[in-house]
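Format is chain and fold; as here:
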Amino acid sequence: MRTNGTRKPSRKSDWPRKVSFGRESVAVYRRQLPSGGYGFMVANYSAGKRRFDSYPTETEALDAAQRLARQLSERQVVAASMTNGQASEYAAAVATLKPYGITLTSAADTLAKCLGTVHDLSNLIAAVEFYAARHKTLTRKPVSEVVTELLTVKEGRKQSPRYLQDLRVRLARFADTFRKDCCDVTTADVQAWLDSLKLSRQSYKNYRTVAHLFFKFAMARGYAADNPVSGADKLKLDGGDVEIFTPGEIRRLLAAATPDCLPCLALGAFAGLRSAEIERLAWADIHLAERLIIIGKKIAKTPSRRVVPISDNLAAWLTPYTQRTGTVWQGTHEGFYEAQQATAAAAGMKWKQNALRHSYASYRFALTNDAGRVAGELGNSAAVVHRHYLELVKATDAEAWFAVKPEGQAVNVVPMMSAAG
């Protein structure tokens, strides 16, 4: 036997053995294994119920038994010296744990292990709350099905066709990547997806916004525990340098454009319309006889209606289309941008993002030197015009820009008067 740290020589008749320390004794058992060897087990009552801890060798089992006996003995010494206040705390702790069927010793051991990982009680609570949120009862539903449900809800709420089309395009790419349940998508997954798209800062922001909307919808319906997009990188839009086309470049683009794409390019270049406005614009909104374009509230980005003048060269580009009806662009939203890229490639150029509108603003401001008028035509503020387009081009460049016309037609360049002016 082992008493207070001393060990007797092992004999076959010694089993089961007891290792003692102070008033505590721990039993060690030897069991023959199917292989013919022996295994050793220590009877452990430290958690209030007996369990057997297995060890491969007699030495390891006896050492473990000695440590356990010492721990149990030391606990009894502490218990004997407890004050009334400490005893009350102990009793309260036991009562708190009773509904969960956990002993104070087991709870303390578990807490110590957790703190060894998170190092702070507040961090431990936060970790538990995070775990609870991620493992609460959820309805498992594939991303593709939630995308369909979201679009159905948006359609039922009479969202604009342009907005719905944008959602369809972006969410289709999202669903094609995430072929799993909503609740299984992590922040790391979303970040990797956004990075893989290799987008401009503005497009990155647009895709991130749609993904955030998707998970907000999923959370409200119990398909996701949290919004993984919240932790994805946010990119600051600093505007960057304003890119414009030269008169020679716009001439090449128009020469390479297909009949369906050409009026869209001309409206962007010589009227400054936004791409989204061109996609929503109808031929009925273009009044060639009066030389103006009506941008209504349903077309404009802002809620206010505006009137844009038609220059002589723009009229020349649009005249062959006077018999057309319906929308100016009759393709899809995605097709609109594909057509721009294809036109630039056919012209042997690289497409410049938003350069048609930037070009119009730059050349128009240089031609009129009237920020207020140009801002009214663009649908933004005079401050924006001054900040981005002041002295970007020369007046002679502006004259050349508004002289770009179909081959064989002469265009006199004069400052255009807006309908409002």
About this structure: The beta strands are 2-3, 6-7, 17-21, 24-32, 38-44, 51-55, 286-287, 292-295, 306-309. The domain at 247-401 is CATH 1.10.443.10 (hpI Integrase; Chain A).
